[in-house]
Amino acid sequence: MTENYSEEDGRLFDGGLSFFIDHDLQIINSGTLFLHSTIEVGESERVIVFKPFYEIIDDILDNVEDDYSELYSIANELNFSAARLKDLAQRIEDSVPNVSDLFDTDYGPPA
């Protein structure tokens, strides 16, 4: 991971070991959404953490005070991101190669 990034994400101590964090969302076989985080410390230490997304949401709900505007902001960001993901999925699903697979035909670029 570190070879892909020119800048560290942070340092553990002042002037100490640099670390890099990479996040991904994954659905496991049960259908549960997980935050998959890879943390690299220095040159050799790598830790992978799986956190169920519902735990992140539960933590937000359990620790909310009276700031409903933050809840709306988070919900709006999640809705916006969901719409972007759905739009891309739709474009991929509607692509010519996928449609030709649906009808069991060969697809090739025009000659």
How widely separated are the two ends?
Answer: 41 Å
Strand content: 25-35%
Number of strands: 4
Percentage of residues in helical conformation = 25-40%
Radius of gyration: 21 Å
Q: Give the domain tally.
A: 2
Largest sheet: 4 strands, antiparallel
Indicate the overall shape. Answer: extended
Structural class: alpha+beta
Mean pLDDT: 84
Order of strands across the main sheet? 1-2-3-4
Instruction: Give me the number of helical elements.
Output: 3
Low-confidence stretches: none
H and E order:
EEEEHHH
Q: Could you explain how this protein is built, in words?
A:
With 111 residues, the chain is an alpha+beta fold. It has two domains: 1-63, no CATH class; 65-95. 39% of the residues lie in helices and 26% in strands. It is built from three helices and four strands; from the N terminus they run ββββααα. The chain has a four-stranded antiparallel β-sheet with strand order 1-2-3-4. The termini are far apart. The model has no long low-confidence stretch (mean pLDDT 84).
